[in-house]
Design brief:
85 residues, little secondary structure, two-stranded antiparallel sheet, 0% helix, binds zinc ion
């Protein structure tokens, strides 16, 4: 009669053989060894699947009123070199 204590299973991820009681089902339904097991998380409760709470403060500190643009009129002859005869 076969005993489950001595039964050997094969990891569905790496293919190595382990005692059957060490293999666990992962979130995809595969029987995997302890090193390939993804831990307490599965596809539903993994922290990376949740949206982080980020508070985006759009207020501007030390803001000043917009006074508009200031234009300076410069004639082109002001910056040309002098013409010597
Ligand atoms: Zn494995």
């Amino acid at each position: 009669m076969a005993s489950e204590k001595k039964a050997i299973g094969e990891c569905d991820m790496c293919g190595f053989q382990y005692p059957l009681h060490q293999l666990k089902k992962n979130s995809m339904g595969f029987r995997v060894c302890p090193s390939d097991w993804e831990g307490a998380y599965n596809l539903q409760n993994h922290p990376q699947n949740k949206i982080p709470r980020v508070h985006d403060d759009e207020n501007i500190r030390n803001a000043r009123p917009d006074e508009g643009d200031t234009y300076v009129t410069v004639t082109t002859t002001d910056w040309l070199p002098p013409v010597y005869p």
